Amino acid sequence: MGQDPEQDELLFEVSRRLEDAGIPSMLTGGLAFAFYGQPRDTIDIDLVIDAHGSDLDALLKVFPANEGWYLSEDAAREALRSKGMVNAIHSLSGNKIDLIVLKPSEYEQQKFRRRQEKRKGNVKFWITTPEDLVVSKLVWGMQSQSEKQARDIRVLLRALPELDFAYVEKWAHTLGAYDWLASIRAQ
């Protein structure tokens, strides 16, 4: 998937542990882009998790300190409460996982329901759909008119001719990113 096989293995292990703990997850961000678009280096693994305050103990057990993990209990508690983000850092490899707590908005809930199960060998993980990755990149990059996000969107649109573009347009319009999508496509 990505450029770093160790990062891929960490993703697979953490995905398995989250599933075993009863915490559904979904890969998004740079590694999802590498899966659908083109491999590239990324500094972290972005995982959306469907977790609540009652999942705090289970979440902490996924990242044990005796295996080189650092996950602040206070930061995790706050992320679960506020539907925010918390970092889990693997000191042995130097990798970081951004754990993004699933937000209650209509789009975020639908995106999570649409996630797809993928396998690499005998390992299973869940990933955002390519359409939702495009919409997410539109939303992430819209405020700053990020050239990196625009470039990623162009790569995905070229690499995935079977993309459900009507779905992308619908959500781009609903989320206020339609004009930016049109300008990206025009380039």
Topology (SSEs and partners):
Layout: H1 5-20, E1 25-28, H2 29-36, E2 45-49, H3 56-62, E3 69-70, H4 73-82, E4 85-90, E5 95-101, H5 106-113, E6 116-120, E7 123-127, H6 130-142, H7 147-159, H8 165-174, H9 178-186
Parallel strand pairs: 2-5
Antiparallel strand pairs: 1-2, 3-4, 4-5, 6-7
Helix pairs in contact: 6-7, 6-8
Could you list some keywords that capture this structure?
Beta Polymerase, domain 2; alpha+beta; 7 strands; two-stranded antiparallel ribbon; 5-stranded mixed β-sheet; 2 domains; 187 residues
User: How is the biggest beta sheet arranged?
Assistant: 5 strands, mixed
The CATH first-level class of the largest domain comes to Alpha Beta
Name the structural class: alpha+beta
Beta percentage is 15-25%
Write the H/E string, N to C. Answer: HEHEHEHEEHEEHHHH
* The number of domains: 2
Unreliable parts: none
| Known CATH architecture of the largest domain | 2-Layer Sandwich
The helical percent reads 40-55%
Strand order of the largest sheet: 1-2-5-4-3
| Strand tally | 7
Count of helices? 9
